[in-house]
Amino acid sequence: AEAERRVMVLENPALKGQSRALDSLFAGLQIILPGEIAPAHRHVASALRFIVEGKDAYTAVDGERTMMLPGDFVTTPSWVWHDHANIGNEPMIWLDGLDMHMVNLFNASFREEAQTQSHELERPDDSSLIEFGYSMVPAHYQPKSGSSPIINYPYARAKEVLYSLKSHERADAWNGHMLKYINPVTGDWALPRLATCMRLMPAGFASKPYRSTESTVFTVVEGSGVSRIGDSEFSWGEKDIFVAPSWVLQEHQSHQDSIIFSYSDRAAQEKLGLFREVRQEATTDGV
Ligand code: 1HN
Fold it and tell me: What are the backbone angles phi and psi of residue 144, rounded to the nearest 5°?
C-alpha cells in the first residue's frame, strides 16, 4: 500500500541506474493486482500505457474512466490527474512509456499528489472516444493542450484499420502497414512529445533497412519474427519488448502476420527541428 505504483523498470544495460530504456525514453512494466488502486497524481511528464494482459482494470485520466484491454493505447497527457484500479479478479500488466527524461533535460518537471485516492470524474466512461473518435468533434471544443482529447485508442479499432489497409494496399517496404495515433483535433501525434504507431507486417515480410534519429521502443502484440538492430539480432514473439536507438540501422522480418506497437521521441524531435530519417535500399547504402 505504501508503493504508489508497482513498476518494473526496463533498464538499458548501457544506461545503468538511470531508469532509461533509451536516452530519451522510460519504459516499465506495471502490474496492478485485483482490488488495488494506484492513487491519483499528476506530473509534467506525459505517459502512455500499452496494455499487455488482463481485463477489468480501468484508468481514470482528467475526469474520465476507461476500462483497458490488451493492445489498447491509453494516453496520459502532461499535468492531468490520473489513477488506476483493478476491479476484477486477475492481475493486469501494461507497458508504461514516459517522456520524463526529456522533461528533466529541461529541468521542467513538477508533480503533485492528489488528496484523494481517485480523482473526481467529470464525464461518462469513454466519452472522449465517442465524441472525438469518429472524425467528428464537438463544435465548441477548445483544446487545453497539444494532447489528444482521446484517452483510449482501442486495439480492436487499430486492428480493423491495419487489416483494411492490408486488403487493398502493398505494404510499405520499410514499415509494413503502419498507422499513426493522432490527435483528431490537430492531426499531430496523440501526445506532443511521444510518437505512437501500430504496424502490421504480413507473414514473410522482410523490411528494407531504415534508420532515423528517433529512439524507439517496440512491443509485439501478435505474431513472431526477427529484427536486426545495428549488430544485434533479436527473435521476438508476443509481449516481447525491444528498442532501437537513434541512427542505428533496423530491419524487421515477420514469420507470420505480426502486429507491433511502438513509441518514440519523434514527436518532440519534429517540434525541435531535429528529426532525420533514411530509407535505404540495401544495408550497404550507409550514410
Ligand atoms: C507514473 O506516474 C506511472 O502514473 C507509471 O502509473 C510509471 C514511472 C516514472 C515516473 C512516474 C503511473 C511511472 C510514473
Answer: -90, -20
28 lines ligand 1 (CB under 6 A): yes
Sequence-separated (6 or more) residues with CB below 8 Å from residue 48: 73, 74, 75, 76, 96, 97, 98, 191, 194, 196, 263
The answer, yes or no, to whether residue 286 has pLDDT greater than 70, is no
Which whole-number Å values give the CA distances from 263 to 22, 37, 209, 238, 246, in the listed order? 11, 26, 19, 17, 13
Distance from the alpha carbon of residue 149 to the mean position of ligand 1, in angstroms: 20
Query: Which one of 7, 52, 58, 79 would you pick to mutate in the ligand 1 pocket, going by the greatest count of ligand atoms within 8 A of its CB?
Result: 7
Q: Would the CB of 82 count as within 6 Å of ligand 1?
A: yes
* Mean pLDDT of all residues belonging to the chain: 97
Answer yes or no: are the C-beta atoms of 245 and 222 closer than 8 Å: no
Distance CA 121, CA 46 (A): 20
Per-residue burial over 131-164, b if 16 or more Cβ lie within 10 Å, else e, is bbbeeeeeeeeeeeebbbbbbbbbbebbbeebee
For residue 2, pLDDT over 80 is answered with no
pLDDT of residue 188: 98
Amino acid making up residue 122: E
Span 46-102, pLDDT tens digits? 999 999 999 999 999 999 999 999 999 999 999 999 999 999 999 999 999 999 999
Number of helices and strands in the chain (H, E):
4, 21
Task: Find out whether 82 and 60 touch, Cβ atoms under 8 Å.
Answer: yes
Please report which confidence band the pLDDT of residue 1 belongs to, taking 50, 70 and 90 as the band edges: confident
What integer pLDDT is reported at residue 31 of this predicted model? 98
